Amino acid sequence: MAYLTHFILLLLINLASSQQISNTESSSSTTTNPTTTEDCNNRWIYIRNLPSRFNLDLLTNCSEYPIFDDFCPYLANHGLGQKTHTKSRSWYRTDPLLLELIFHRRILEYPCLTNDPNVANAVFLPYYGAIDSLKYLYGPDVNSSFQHGIGLFDFLQSDEPGIWNRHMGHDHFLVMSRPAWDFCQPLDNDPPIWGTSFLELPEFYNVTVLVPEGRAWPWQEHAVPYPTSFHPPNLACFEAWIQRVRRSRRVSLMLFAGGGGIGASPNIRRSIRTECENANTSMTKDNTGYSQICHIVDCSNGICEHDPIRYMRPMLQATFCLQPPGDTPTRRSTFDAVTAGCIPVFFEEMSARSQYRWHLPEEKYPEFSVFIPKEEVVFKGLKILDVLMGIPRSEVRKMRESVIELIPRVMYRRHGSSLGLRTKKDAFDTAIDGALQTIKDKLNDLSEQ
Ligand SMILES: *[C@@H]1O[C@H](CO)[C@@H](O)[C@H](O)[C@H]1NC(C)=O
Ligand SMILES: *[C@@H]1O[C@H](CO)[C@@H](O)[C@H](O)[C@H]1NC(C)=O
Ligand SMILES: *[C@@H]1O[C@H](CO)[C@@H](O)[C@H](O)[C@H]1NC(C)=O
Ligand SMILES: *[C@@H]1O[C@H](CO)[C@@H](O)[C@H](O)[C@H]1NC(C)=O
User: Fold this and answer.
1) pTM (two decimals)
2) Are residues 179 and 68 in the same domain?
3) How confident is the model at residue 14 (pLDDT cuts 50, 70, 90)?
4) In this structure, which residue's CA is closest to atom 2 in ligand 4?
5) Cα–Cα 20 to 30 A to 149, which of 73, 84, 89, 127?
6) Signal peptide location in the record (predicted)?
């Protein structure tokens, strides 16, 4: 517990000091400051001041959910987690649940922050909504999951209500670091089945919510990449990694890093396992050019989650990385694969194409990924291997280049990174652009009505 208190104190101190830095940056008008030369027109963000019960206090319970992991170790480095090795500059044991912290820390160094809500184009709520949901999902409040968010709404209505009322919440946005499915239990489910009702509350319909996975139909949430373990601090570290990705020898044709597919019922993960087991014996190095056709990195029981070395090295050595759906359609692994320059293979549109439109433009999918409908594989005997072997080598090289070009957009660079690296738009910057545009469009639509 002592070490946890230490983390939180550090976090508080750092949050407070960077808030000051950002505020002075954004309010000063010196032309020598590189951040103020950026065009902030239509890009001003106001960070709503929330009581700590909506964010930092929630971290104090990080070890108290008996059927959920103790997430205290991953709070380090403002949510990036501990470094994988003491000497590592860019690699951390990142848990995707802490995207809310990562985002909060990063927005404090956003160059266009304003102290005046009346000039803001968007209002950010630094609420750790997914962490707050744990007490409903895995804790004592399971039977009151429809209350998730009510306290926040009450606060927004009672404390400076003018900020909400200016646009009835249409200019507000926040991050919730779990799939939207966890927050859309219908309000009339009694007893509750799964999830809280945060996204079902009319109180929050007007708010833009950033999640790692959205629902199939357009709603108030928008998907942003899961954080990977790669958080470079400067351009040199970033470029060194890109070099490594580009030069890496791809000795396996395809790789699957994950678990599942063990049971008897037909599903895509099972088909992948079966195909991999057979592929090893039926193909040889001579007729494929690969020393391994299929590589499975067994990640059952969450053993890979905070240990990126287990899967990043194999991904660097593979040409294609299979991204079958699991409990939900999306996977963090998609972004790990892109980071490793491994061409993702999707089996349903919900896994990425219909999700991450800001970060991975829909029309680019044929350039950087392969799509094989899962029904064809599971029920019609289509071999993944045949599809992938059928792609000419020259095409594969072009696809890999397209994947490498996407790396900056899916990474969350380290907070406090060098100005050189800040010139590359990362996942955070792209999410902010998307949120600002969504809010702008909404406000335009409203004013036309
Ligand atoms: C979190 O910790 C506080 C203080 O220890 C406690 O009052 C509260 O019930 C805890 N919440 C959960 C969900 O465990
Ligand atoms: C929630 O409600 C169910 C059904 O009424 C009950 O069995 C269960 O004990 C309750 N859980 C808690 C944590 O109160
Ligand atoms: C959401 O926006 C609609 C239309 O602008 C408005 O009527 C409604 O009151 C807003 N909801 C809240 C909770 O402010
Ligand atoms: C395929 O063979 C390689 C080398 O013999 C081995 O390391 C790998 O685990 C095998 N893969 C599967 C899926 O059996």
Assistant:
1) 0.91
2) yes
3) low
4) 280
5) 73
6) 1-18
